[in-house]
Amino acid sequence: MRPITKENPFKLVFVCLGNICRSPTAEGIFIHKVKNHNLENFFYIDSAGTAAYHVGESANSKSQTTANKRGIHLPSKARKFEYVDLEEFDLILAMDSENYRNILDLDSKDKYGHKVKMMREYDPQPDMKDVPDPYYGGMDGFENVFNVLERSSEQLLVELKEHVKE
Fold it and tell me: Distance (Å, rounded) from C-alpha 45 to C-alpha 42?
């Protein structure tokens, strides 16, 4: 892992299907954690979806309600994950196995697979491989997803902070 500096910030993108539930929640949580550690100049944080269903939309209202209750703002507007993202980002975090495969399918020359990880690889309490999609469920699903992403984001930041060079 390369040193993370203000001159060369670490770029990470969280990826789900539509970019309105899981990935913008992960993005908002990670932004919040980075700011709380005064590290915002060391990271570029984004989110995207492998499908273009919701391009330009804000995060799902249930995701926003769940995050707002915990003092987290979800600033993103949905966008589609593109090939250029494979080149641009240092770490690409898929929310589930299907989106992991969708991301790797863009990498026809196998140049960027080392950058693609599953978000739950950072979860200290992984009970499954995927971050479940809460889109068709009730608020409990959104609360569960928030908890999973908060734990995973905390561990991710712990690991990345080791490489920050102030």
Answer: 10
Query: Which runs of E-coded beta strand occur in 51-146?
Result: 91-94, 116-118
The yes-or-no answer on residue 70 being catalytic is no
Quick check: is 107 catalytic? no
133 labelled catalytic: yes
Alpha helices (H) along 2-47: 22-36
Given 22, 79, 85, 120, the catalytic residue: 22
Q: How far is CA 6 from the centre of its chain?
A: 21
pLDDT tens digits for range 32-82: 999 999 999 999 999 999 998 999 999 999 999 999 999 999 999 999 999
Q: Which CATH number fits domain 10-161: 2.70.50.60, 3.40.50.2300, 2.40.10.220, 2.30.40.10?
A: 3.40.50.2300
Q: Are 153 and 33 in contact (CB under 8 A)?
A: yes
